[in-house]
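Morning F.,

Quick status update on the modeling queue. The single chain you submitted on Monday has been processed. Sequence for confirmation:
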Amino acid sequence: MSVEIMFHWERGWMLPQFEIQVWDDLALAFNVSALHMIPDLKMNAKTPLYKYDTFDDFLNANEGKKLVYVIPPDEWDSSWTNTYYLRDYEHPADCVYIFGASFTNLPTYVTPEDDVIGIETPVDQQIWQWQVAGMVLYDRLIKSL
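Structure tokens below.
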């Protein structure tokens, strides 16, 4: 089983050395196989870390892998056929969960082969991508028990 995470560092929000530590800790806790980071900030992690300059570079390097985009439900496109609320989602054995950034327009990259999942919250409030990643990985864990 291979579970990977792609995340996009946002300039001006958090120092990259702190953000990579947050992602690495989460990856280690949930036995994530690899992390993918955009952009390449010359950071290191205990978890295998692949770095890309652009999202297109990431897509080209990971062609053929099952991609699962994590996008807030209010940003879903009505043409997508594989959209799921996290509570109803059956996680694939092998996949890359993709977490964007506030300034990343992930919806433009979704293809019919990809899944899109979203988390419902009681209040419309933005939460950090690694917090959402923790929810997704925990959901995956408890559904596999």
